[in-house]
Design a protein that fits this description.
By secondary structure, the chain is of the alpha/beta class. The chain contains 12 helices and 19 strands. Helix 11 links the parallel strand 13 and strand 14. The longest helix is centred in the last third of the chain and has 24 residues. Bound molecules: 5'-deoxyadenosine and iron/sulfur cluster (SF4).
């Protein structure tokens, strides 16, 4: 009789760090002999990798976990594992509310999943792992990366900033940096497997190495990764304006493979709101930083994150945000409505802003930002840019890829067959808010 192959299915939510964690879960499951399931209802193991940064994410995920209840009733042998930030935050409460959940895996246990699952299968007893004080194990096994040419590389875990709106420090713990030799070894291995683009991940990458007591370790890391043969593009996420310094900007300017894209979340344009957010910089300091970036890397794309409706945000405070967006001229911005996260200092602040006001501010902000994005994209018209091909668009005759500045580019493939990860030169002739279009002029 043929034995049935065990299968797995992963639902992933949240940031790039979660996307990376999911690749680690998939790798460990495949090492245990599991294959991806086509239908999650029939999978032997389901992992829900969760996010709790905003209430909207939590609601969506709670709905998904709820949906698994009936599936588990029909298939009681299935293992349901809730992993990531919600598992970390809600712990046992989550197990009580959702009895269909078998395993709870906090954020510090990603690389121990294989042994935890093996142990669980032997005993079949509900387990939770949510200690945040352990040091993340180094990953040694197989990895199932989603892309064939672009790799996520975690360089540090956790966050020490404690911005007053943010839940992350409570669910990802204190900053722990990976040793530089482990990061370099992982990238070298990925290069051998054909990877070309590397995104160094951390909640605050500019703090990399501070826990080793090393100064300017992130700038040094950029320079070291830049030397690895076969690395074509280096990106990194996310930076904190307070810790982003001249050394990092210089490294970006001087390293051939580090992309000219600065993602520097400013969150709010009013000094009073920045103070209440515990951001550790003023609007003036932020503008100085932007000036410094532009002086070293004039063609850089600058992107940001912005929150509207933080407690106590007045119309004038919000207008300070709008004015800053206009003054900087960001290439793109991720804009969010403030979401109250219980356990954070801002949740207890009085003067919570009504939802209708928050929504109105978000719309006004997006209008200003969209014009800025379009304006920045129009500056590319007539220019020839280096694109790393990603894949065909919905229309298979049109290919997509990204510039070094991380702009989405579309161009007609004509009769050419492109490969993902291939460099293509595209002359831009059309600009829209979210993308630019052009024609391939020649191969690099
Ligand atoms: N409400 C709204 N947005 C938030 N962010 C983080 N916490 C909250 C919150 N409570 C946003 C910040 C951060 C991005 C990843 O998510 O802008 O930079
Ligand atoms: Fe969501 Fe933050 Fe956790 Fe990422 S680190 S998954 S954004 S809560």
């Amino acid at each position: 009789m043929e034995t049935k192959q065990n299968t797995y299915y992963i639902f992933n939510y949240g940031c790039q760090m979660n996307a990376s964690d999911t690749e680690h879960y998939a790798g460990q499951l495949e090492e245990l002999g599991y294959a991806p399931a086509e239908d999650f209802r029939k999978a032997d193991v389901i992992v829900v990798n969760t996010c709790c940064v905003r209430e909207s994410a939590e609601k969506k995920i709670a709905g998904k976990i709820g949906e698994l209840k009936n599936i588990k009733i029909k298939n009681p042998d299935m293992v349901i594992c809730v992993a990531g930030c919600m598992a970390q935050k809600d712990g046992e409460k989550l197990l009580k509310k959702h009895p269909q959940v078998d395993l709870l895996l906090g954020t510090a246990y990603v690389n121990d999943f294989k042994s935890i699952l093996t142990e669980y299968l032997a005993e079949r007893k509900g387990k939770y792992y949510t200690d945040l004080t352990i040091h993340q194990s180094e990953f040694e096994g197989k990895m199932v990366r989603q892309s064939s040419f672009s790799a996520w590389i975690p360089i540090m875990y956790g966050c020490n900033n404690f911005c007053t709106y943010c839940i992350v420090p409570y669910v990802r713990g204190r900053e722990r940096s990976r040793a530089i030799e482990n990061i370099v070894a992982e990238i070298e291995q990925a290069v051998e497997e054909g990877y070309k683009e590397f995104t160094l991940l951390g909640q605050n990458v500019n703090s990399y190495g501070k826990d080793f007591g090393e100064k300017n370790a992130f700038a040094k890391l950029l320079r070291r990764v830049n030397e690895i043969k076969g690395v074509e593009r280096i990106r990194y996420m996310t930076s904190h304006p307070r810790d982003m310094n001249e050394e990092v900007i210089k490294a970006v300017a001087e390293c051939e493979h580090v992309c000219e894209n600065f993602h520097v979340p400013f969150q709010a344009g009013s000094n009073e709101i920045l103070r209440r957010m515990n951001r550790g910089y003023s609007r003036e300091k932020y503008l100085e930083l932007i000036k410094m970036i532009r002086s070293y890397v004039p063609d850089a794309a600058i992107t940001t994150d912005i929150i509207v409706g933080f407690p106590g945000e007045t119309e004038q405070d919000f207008e300070d945000t709008l004015a800053l967006v206009q003054e900087v001229g960001f290439d793109a911005a991720f804009t969010f409505i403030y979401s109250k996260r219980s356990g954070t200092p801002a949740a207890k602040m009085e003067e919570q802003v009504p939802l209708a006001v928050k929504k109105d501010r978000l719309n006004r902000l997006m209008e200003v930002q969209n014009l800025s994005s379009l304006h920045r994209n129009k500056e590319l018209i007539g220019k020839t840019v280096e694109v790393l091909a990603e894949g065909p668009s919905k229309n298979p005759a049109v290919w997509t890829g990204r510039t070094r500045t991380n702009k989405l580019v579309l161009w007609p493939a004509e009769s050419r067959i492109y490969n993902a990860g291939e460099k293509v030169l595209v002359k831009i002739d059309t600009a829209q808010t979210w993308l630019v279009k052009g024609k391939a002029v020649q191969d690099v």
